[in-house]
Design goal:
This protein is of the alpha/beta class. The chain contains nine helices and eight strands. An eight-stranded parallel β-sheet has the order 7-6-5-4-3-2-1-8. Strand 4 (99-103), helix 5 (106-115) and strand 5 (123-128) form a beta-alpha-beta unit. The structure holds pyridoxal-5'-phosphate. Residues 36, 38, 60, 82, 166, 206-208, 222-226 line the site of pyridoxal-5'-phosphate.
Length: 241
């Protein structure tokens, strides 16, 4: 994709976020845009950063992310891990990312806390909730969320920032909102537990459901396709595993 196209796409996403905020009486500054760069080359990330001042990038595949990070150390980027975490990969995640959106197991949380380097700030974590039930196996079940949040909150090197979900894809705007509303309700319940953590983040909304997410209180939208264009099938190669 040509340089100016990425810049244009980011401008368009920012305008979309602004319009969606305006419609529901929110400030655009309350909603952070995470550019999801999985399968995209390091050069595309560089363009987004240097031409459009995009700072936060989301990656799903560890090996691929580490390779790109190594090519971009001259830029002040904030890296978010948004893929599923295997327990033998926690050390690299703890060492190379500022945020994790997909925490759903206590064992993984414990390892991330133990392995977070002391010269870095605490790892910012979100608990991924399996809102749509059987549709996706990833995420903690809503009825187990409270117990997991209490365990994570007790870990010294993690800062529990909030919740994330990936609802079952649907074009029905009301169904999109209903799923996001459930997550918002769960976050409010956690806030009432006074866990001693910020709990200020709702990571909801992707390219196709950004409006609904912002209407339901999203503070962070994860946008891939609308910024970088369609991902090529098979582009991930072996770094997938
Ligand atoms: C790929 C991905 C996104 C971005 O999806 P788009 O539809 O390309 O905007 C957001 N969140 C997660 C967890 C993803 O894996």
């Amino acid at each position: 994709m040509s340089p100016s196209v990425i810049e244009e796409h980011i401008a368009k996403v920012r305008a979309q976020v602004e319009a969606a905020c305006q419609r529901v009486g929110r400030q655009a500054s309350e909603v952070k845009i995470l550019a999801v760069s999985k399968t995209q080359p390091a050069e595309a990330i560089r363009l987004a950063a240097t031409q459009a001042q995009q700072q936060a990038f989301g990656e799903n595949y560890l090996q691929e992310a580490l390779e790109k990070q190594a090519l971009l150390t001259d830029l002040p980027l904030e890296w978010h891990f948004i893929g599923s975490i295997q327990s033998n990969k926690t050390r690299a995640v703890a060492e190379h990312f500022a945020w994790v959106h997909t925490l759903a197991r206590e064992k993984i949380a414990r390892r991330l806390s133990e392995q977070r380097p002391l010269d870095l700030p605490p790892l910012q974590v979100l608990l991924q909730v399996n809102i749509s039930g059987e549709a996706s196996k990833d995420g903690v079940a809503p009825q187990e969320l409270k117990a997991l949040a209490q365990q994570v909150a007790a870990l010294p090197r993690l800062s529990l920032r909030g919740l994330m979900c990936i609802p079952e894809p649907t074009e029905d705007a009301l169904a999109q909102r209903a799923a996001f509303a459930q997550l918002r309700k769960l976050l409010i319940e956690l806030q009432h537990l006074d866990l001693g953590h910020p709990l200020d983040t709702l990571s909801i909304g992707m390219s196709a459901d950004l409006e609904a997410a912002i209407a339901e209180g999203s503070t962070l939208v994860r946008i891939g396709t609308a910024i970088f264009g369609a991902r090529q099938r098979g582009a991930v190669s072996s770094s997938h595993f």
